[in-house]
Amino acid sequence: MKKLLSLLLAATLLLGGCGKSPNASSTGGTAGGAGKKITVALLPKSKGNAYFISCKAGAEKAARTLGVDLLFDGPTESDPAKQNEIVENWIALGVDVIAAACENKEGISTALRKAQSKGIKVITYDADALPDARSFFVNQATPEGIAFTLADEAARLTHSEGEIAMILATLTAANQQEWRKYIEARLAEKYPKIKLVAVRPCDDLKDKAQAEATALLSAYPNLKLLMNICSPAVPGAAEAVKQAGKTGKVKVIGLGLPSENRRYVKDGVTDSVILWKTEDLGALTVDAAVALVKGTLKPGDQSFKATTLGGATFEIKGDNLLLGKPFIFNKENIDQFNF
Amino acid sequence: MKPQLKSLLLRHETALLLVVAIEWFGFNAIGPRFGTLDNNFDILRHTVEIGLLALAMTPIILTGGIDLSVGSLLGLCAILFGKLWRDAGFSPAMAGACTLAIGGVAGGLNASLITVLRLPPLIVTLGTYSLFRGLAEAITRGADTFTNFPGSFLMLGQERWLGLPTQAWVFCAVAAAIWLLVHRTTFGRSFRAIGFAPEGARYAGLPVDRRIAMVYVVGGLIAALAAIIYTARLGQAKADAGTGYELFAITAVVLGGTSIFGGVGSVHGTLLGVAAIAVLNNGLVHARQPREAAGMLTGALLLLALSASVAPKVWASWRSRHRPSPSPARSS
Amino acid sequence: MSRYFRELSVGAALLLVWLALAVFAPGFYQPQPLLSLATREAPTLVVACGMALVIICRQIDISVGSQFAVCSVAAGLLATLNWPTALVALAAVAFGAVFGAINGALVAGLRLPSIVVTLATMVTWREGLRWQRQGAFVNLPDRLQWFGLSQSAGQGLLVGLALLVLVALAIAMKYLAAGRFVYAVGSDAEAARLAGIRPQWVTFNTFVLLGALTGLAAMMNVAQSPQVDPKSGTGLELKAIAAVVVGGVAISGGRGTLVGVFVGLLLLACVAPALTHLHVEAYWEKAIQGAIILLAVVADGIRTRRGGRSENV
C-alpha cells in the first residue's frame, strides 16, 4: 500500500517535470546575446584543495573583469564518479561553458561529450580529458614540461647520479601517473645513473607523506633526493628530512604551493618548489572559456590574445593553450608570491 | 479519523515521503531547471548504484547484521569486470556474468565468516572492507584503469530505453525483487525474526545460518551488479570506484526507518531514504549552495529521523519514571 | 587456552615481523627513525585507548577522525591568535570532550544506536570543517612545535605521554570501580543496572573520555609539525578500531585489555614501514591490513567455536 503511494508520487513528479521543459532547454545558453550573462562553470579536481582555490581566485578576478558569472564546484570526496555528476548537474542547469580539471580522463569525457552535444562549450585546464571531449586544453605546462623540469632539477641537485624516491598522491590519479611516466622516461634517457628506488602514495595527506618519507629515509640510507609530486607531500617530506637531521644531505623538491613551503625553502630543507602561476592559470581558463562562447577563440587558432592578464598573447600548440613554462620557486624568489 | 488512516499517516515512511515532497517542491521553486525531465533523469542515473547498495543493505540490516564492505566490493568487481573484458577477452555479457558470480562468492566469504565462525558482522565486514579494496588496488597496481568499452555495453549506463535511463529499469527490477523478497515471502519474515530475536528464531526451527548467509550473498551479487552499471555510466573502471558508498547506503537504510539493531524496517522506507538524500544533493546544486552543505544537512536529517523514531519511547519511559506511581491496592 | 591468548598471539605475530625485518631489512632498527615512527603513532594510541573503552561498553564511535581534524584546526587557529600553549592544549581537549558529550548524549540519553549517531556527527563535522577551511593549511607559530623543547625531548615527551595514558587507563580499568563498571555495562547492561550501576551514565562518560582523548591526540599531532593539514585524521577511526579489534577487544562488549590494543596497534602500524623497508610495492598495504584484521578475528572465532561458546553479536 505504502509502496503504491510512493510509486504514485514518483510518477506524478516525473509527469509534472515533463510539462516543465524551459524554452532554451537543453541547448547551452546563447553566446552572450541580448543581456544574458555568460555562465562559466569551473570544476576543480577537488574542492578543498589549496591549489585549486588559488586558481579560483584568479578565475574570479577574470570573471569580474569580463563581466561573466562564475560557478565553482567540485567533489569533496574521492569517488571518481563525482566529477561526472557535477558536470551533468551543470548540463541540467544550462551553463554556457564548462572548464574542467579532470581526475579521470576517460570517465569524465563521457560527461563532457554529453555537454558538448547539448551545445555547451567545453575546455579543460590543469589535467586534460580525451581530445574529442573538449575544444581546448589550457595547459599550464605540458606534462612532459613538468616532468622534465622535475627530472632536470633532480639531476642538478644529485649531480646526475644516485638514488632518489618519489612520493605521489595516489596510485590511481591520472595526472600523477602521467608525470611519473614522463619522469621515469626522462631519467632513463638523460640521466641513467639516477635510480628511482621507491614510489609511495600519501593519499594527499601531509601527515602520511611525512610518515612515508621517514620510512624511506631509513629504508634507503643512500637516498639523495625526495621528489614529491603531490602538493601536501612537499612540506610533509621536508619536515621528515628536517626531523631526521638530514637537511642538506637529502634534497627535497616537488610540485607545491609557495605559501606551504616558504619556511622550508628559506631554511634550506627544500631546494626547489615547482609550480606555475596558479592565479594566471585560473584567469586564462576563464578568459579562454568566454572567448570560446563568444566565438573569438576557434579550433585551429594558433594563438590567443587574452583580455585579462595584461592582454598578453599565448601560444596554442595543436589544441593546447599554453600558459608557459613551469616556474621554479626557490630561496631567491619565493617571497614574491603569496599563494 | 479512521484508525487505519491515522496509523498510515503516523508511520515513519509517510513522514519521509513528506520530507521528499517538501524537498522536491522546495527546490523546484528555488531552481528553475530543477524540475526538468533531464534533471530528474540525472538524479535517477546518479542514484542507481548507491540505491542498489542500499537495497542490498536492507535485508542485511533487518537480520541485525551490517555490511561495510559493499563499497569496496563494488570497486573490486568493477576492475575485475574490466580485466575479464580487456585482458581475458570475454564479451561484456560473459564478463558481466562472471563478475556477478565473483560478487556472490565475495558475499559468501562474509557470510561464511559470520555464520560458521559466528563472528560479528561489523568486524568481518570491516576486514573485508580493507581486503576487497586492497585486492582491487593490488590487482591494478593502483594505476591500471579499464576503458574503451563497446557502445553496446555503455548503453546500459548512458542511454535511455523506452523513455527511462536504461539502468533505471534494472534498478526497478531489483527494487521490486527485493521488496517482494522482504515483504511477501517467508524468507523476508524470517529476516525480521532473526533480527528481532536470533536465539528465539533458532529455537523456533528457522534455518538461521542459511538465511543470514543468503542476505550476504545477495548483497554481494547486487554490489557486483552496481559495479557493472557504474562502469557503464562512467565508461571507466578504477580501483577506487565506490569509495564511501557503504556509508551512504547505511544512511539511506536508517533514514528509511529500518532499525540498525534489526527486526524492524521496510524496503520502501529505504527507497524513500535514497530519494531524500539524492534529491537533497541535486537540489542544493540548483540552489547554488556549496556541496558541503549537503553532507551537513544529511547528517542533521539522519539525527532528526532517528530522534523522531525514538522520541515516543523515550518520552513514555521518562513519564513513567517521573509520574507518581499509583499506590498499591488498599482496601478503601 | 590462556586467558590472554589474543594478546600473546598478536605479540607473537609482531615479534615475527620484527624478526623478519631484522633479517631482511636491518636498516629498520635505527633510533631516530624509530622514534619518529613512534611519535607519529602516539596520537593514534591515545585515541585507540579511548576507543577500546567505548567498544568494551558495547558502543562504537566512527566520528573520531573528524573530531581530530576539527580539534587540530581549532588548536592551530588559537595558537595563531597567540594563546599560550597550555591553554591551547586545554582548549583542544575541551573541544574533544564537547564532541564526545554530543555523541554520548545522543547515544546514552536518547538511546540512539551509536554507529548511526557517530556516522551522522562524522559527516557533519567533516563537511563543516571542509566548508570553513577549503583545504588551507594552518601555519603555526614556531614556539608550538615540540612545545618549545628540542626535537628529541619533544618526541620523547609525546611518546611518554601516550604510554602514560595507556598505563593510566589500563590500571583504571583493572583496579578502579569505574573501570569495572565499563566492563559490566558492556557485558550486560541490565544486570549492571540491577547491581546499582547507572549504565547510561557510564556510556555517556566513555564517549566524553574518548572525545577528550581525541582532543589530546589532536594537540599531540599539532605539536609535531609547523603546519596543520585540515585533512589530518582521515582514516583515524579505522586505524583505532582495527587496533582495538586486532588487540582482542570483543565488539560484543565486555571483554578485552588495553595491552592487547597496544600490541594490535604496533602490529598494524608496522605494516607500512615494513613494506617500504622490504622493498614491497605500496599497493599491498590495504590488502595486508585487511588480512590481519580478518585473521585476528577468524582466530578468535575458531577458538570460541572449539570452546563451544557462541559469540553472537
Walk me through the topology.
The complex is a heterotrimer of chains A (339), B (332) and C (313).
Chain A: H1 2-18, E1 39-43, H2 50-66, E2 69-72, H3 81-93, E3 97-100, H4 105-117, E4 121-125, E5 136-139, H5 143-158, E6 162-168, H6 174-190, E7 194-201, H7 206-219, E8 223-228, H8 233-243, E9 251-255, H9 258-266, E10 270-275, H10 278-294, E11 303-305, E12 313-317, E13 320-322, E14 327-329
Parallel strand pairs in A: 1-2, 1-3, 3-4, 4-5, 5-13, 6-7, 6-8, 8-9, 9-10
Antiparallel strand pairs in A: 10-14, 11-12, 12-13
Helix pairs in contact in A: 2-10, 3-4, 5-6, 7-8
Chain B: H1 3-9, H2 12-30, H3 37-62, H4 70-86, H5 92-115, H6 121-139, E1 146-147, H7 151-158, E2 160-161, E3 164-165, H8 166-184, H9 186-196, H10 198-203, H11 208-234, E4 236-237, H12 245-255, H13 267-286, H14 291-322
Antiparallel strand pairs in B: 1-4, 2-3
Chain C: H1 5-24, H2 31-56, H3 64-80, H4 85-109, H5 114-133, E1 138-139, H6 151-175, H7 177-187, H8 189-194, H9 199-222, E2 227-228, H10 236-246, H11 258-277, H12 285-306
Antiparallel strand pairs in C: 1-2
Helix pairs in contact in C: 1-11, 2-6, 2-7, 2-9, 2-10, 2-11, 3-4, 3-5, 3-9, 4-9, 6-7, 7-9, 10-11, 11-12
Low-confidence stretches of chain B: none
CATH architecture of chain B: Orthogonal Bundle
Radius of gyration of chain B: 22 Å
Lateral arrangement of strands in the main beta sheet of chain C? 1-2
Number of DSSP E strands of chain B:
4
Order of helices and strands of chain C: HHHHHEHHHHEHHH
What percent strand of chain B?
under 5%
**How far apart are the first and last residues' alpha carbons of chain C, in Å?**
22 Å
